[in-house]
Amino acid sequence: MAKPLMAKATAVWLVDNTTISFKQIADFVGMHELEVQGIADGDVAAGVKGFDPIANNQLTQDEIDAAQNNPLHKLKLKFNPAASGEEKRRGPRYTPLSKRQDRPNSILWLVKFHPELSDGQIAKLVGTTKPTIQSIRERTHWNIANMQPIDPVALGLCKQSELDAIVQKAAAKKAAEGGVMSDDERRKLVSTEQSLEMDAAPKIPTAIEGLETFSLSDEPVDEKEEEPVIDADSFFNLPKGGADDEDEDDLRP
């Protein structure tokens, strides 16, 4: 339901010039009933000048009379193009000035890790233009050498739920087209909640220690049997003393 322009000023005018109940006024202007009561008591909207909804083509006198005669009657906004535009405004997402310098980095992250997203989806998500996205895709952006891919959620340019929604939409579109996806593409199309529930993949050890027992399978590795301890004599196969040793002793002077 569309709300009137200058809702608080309209509520001030209705409180001052009609006998409509606080509940009816609150429902019409989108405020809480206690706020409207605060306007009547002078605690809220002090100094706000009333905004006549009849003169500004938002209400008719017949509608006000009907609401005054029936406490259950709900005020209906007269068709007003200006008021309709205030309810739903089309256009790119607004990005604060402090975060606009980080927007190319977020676009680079989306292009790199979610290439299945269209330029229109990325533009709507982070509030940019299609030529900018195209220049980053083709690596012709003037600052491409200094850009680094950064998650737009971490930068505060969008919510995680919004990112998951467009990723799921891209996954549904990919499945409807019947295209064969690789394992990497399939992992990219999974939302954050689903990825957190997955089992962790085995990691390859970075150090040499541990490589002898590393395996990509989940089956336990059987321990090797203990090798017999070999002493020095048996290793070098040294002969034990015998008759030859005694003969050599006899030949000595």
Characterise the protein shown here:
The protein is mainly α and 253 residues long. It has 14 helices and no strands. It has helices spanning 7-17, 22-29, 33-41, 61-69, 81-87, 103-113, 119-126, 130-137, 152-155, 160-177, 183-188, 192-197, 232-236, 243-251. α6 (103-113) packs across α8. The radius of gyration is 39 Å and the shape is elongated.
End-to-end CA span: 127 Å
What is the percentage of strand-forming residues?
under 5%
Reading the helices and strands in chain order gives HHHHHHHHHHHHHH
Shape: elongated
Largest sheet report: none
Q: Helical region count?
A: 14
Poorly predicted runs are 85-89
Which structural class do the helices and strands define?
Answer: mainly alpha
How many beta-strand elements? 0
Arithmetic mean of pLDDT = 75
